[in-house]
Amino acid sequence: MIAQLNAELAERAQAGLKRKRRLLQSPQAAHLVADGQCLLSFASNDYLGLANHPDLILAFQQAAQVAGVGGGASHLITGHHQFHHEAEQALASFVGLPAGLLFSTGYMANMGVVAALLGRNDAIFADKLNHASLNDAAVLARAALNRYAHQDLAQLEQMLAASNAPRKLVIVDAVFSMDGDIAPVPALVALCEKHDAYLLLDDAHGFGVLGNHGRGILSHFNVISPRIIYMATLGKAAGVAGAFVAGDETIIEYLIQSAKTYIYTTASPPALAAAVVVAVDVMQRDDAFHQHLRELIAYFKENLNLKKWHLMPSDTAIQPIVVGSNETAIRLSEYLVTRGILVPAIRPPTVPRNTARLRVSLSAAHRLDDVQLLIQYLHEAEQVLLA
């Protein structure tokens, strides 16, 4: 087996698909130190710059003094701390849904929800560009999986209309993590109501960014429905770690009783939950983060003028630049590093073949001159690398 694995790793390296971990030697920030080099980073999901916010750090430290470091047990034994309870209430209220439930990661949340709610006789309807966690969740549930072309609601409706499954669940990214485009949630809700289906929204990249004070995709579209099961991660715009699911009280109670990724794992550290409550408070009381981020997004889109490479249409913090080949994406990323700027190269299978790209992630932690510098070096790189 070791010989086979080495051969596969060599093939991956030859195809420009082998990935490398950077070693961070500073807090997560717009300006960080990785592998001993000072870099201006456009590589993180810390969309509001809260990962190193002093209020969150203080909350975490104070909560650790009260509750210790580890969760110590699963939630259904003795691991469910008062801090977890307060975070669930604050998060559900923030997104405007009746009840919430914390999970250790977004991956575990999606796996737990889908596998708990559906079985062999049920049906899942999934956008083809969904996150890997939703794809794996569909396989784990063992329900009939119907995948529709990206954002093709006509095809989705045909699939829903043709299904006689007792339970139907549409699963979709609210903001697609590699393209930055937004799911048409009102239309999806309408289809679910018409065809007696439920809708699982993975708002990992919309929570904290979209909507009033970052309340997410539901606020962005001003839509609420009892058919929505809402999932968002807490390690991106919220600056902490973990995830939560919110929705109808019956669904949340059923997940507490049935979601294996919730039941059979030690609860996350209570201090993280205390920091999440403060993150929600920071977002609610100060819209300056969101306003600054919106201004940076608009400036980047208006002032980046590439001749050969393609900036995909996105109104979110995710701004993908499609360059085509794996080799070009790697060369461009490496070129920017020589200029002190970190932007990751995204390659298949994360994105479709021949659509390798740089994924620019903007943050409220960036200054305008940071974005101006990135634009300058992207224009320069296009001239140098395509000369």
Short characterization:
By secondary structure, the protein is α/β, with parallel strands linked by helices. The protein has 15 helices and 14 strands.
Keywords, separated by commas or semicolons:
single chain, 387 residues, alpha/beta, Aspartate Aminotransferase, domain 1, Aspartate Aminotransferase, domain 2, 2 domains, seven-stranded mixed sheet
Topology:
Blueprint: H1 2-14, E1 31-34, E2 37-41, H2 54-67, H3 75-79, H4 82-95, E3 99-103, H5 106-117, E4 123-127, H6 132-141, E5 144-148, H7 153-162, E6 168-173, H8 185-194, E7 198-202, H9 217-221, E8 228-233, E9 243-247, H10 249-258, H11 260-263, H12 270-285, H13 288-303, E10 310-311, E11 318-324, H14 326-338, E12 341-342, E13 345-346, E14 356-361, H15 368-385
Instruction: Estimate the strand proportion.
Output: 15-25%
Taking the alpha carbons of the first and last residues, their distance comes to 44 Å
Q: What is the count of β-strands?
A: 14
Name the CATH superfamily assignment of the largest domain: Type I PLP-dependent aspartate aminotransferase-like (Major domain)
Unreliable runs, pLDDT <50, ≥5 residues?
Answer: none
Strand order of the largest sheet: 3-9-8-7-6-4-5
Instruction: Note the main sheet.
Output: 7 strands, mixed
Outline, from the CA principal axes? globular
Count of helical regions: 15
State the domain count. Answer: 2
What is the CA-based Rg, rounded? 21 Å
Structural class: alpha/beta
**Percentage of residues assigned to helices:** 40-55%
Named CATH topology of the largest domain: Aspartate Aminotransferase, domain 2
CATH class type of the largest domain: Alpha Beta
H and E string: HEEHHHEHEHEHEHEHEEHHHHEEHEEEH
Mean pLDDT: 96
Instruction: Supply the CATH architecture of the largest domain.
Output: 3-Layer(aba) Sandwich
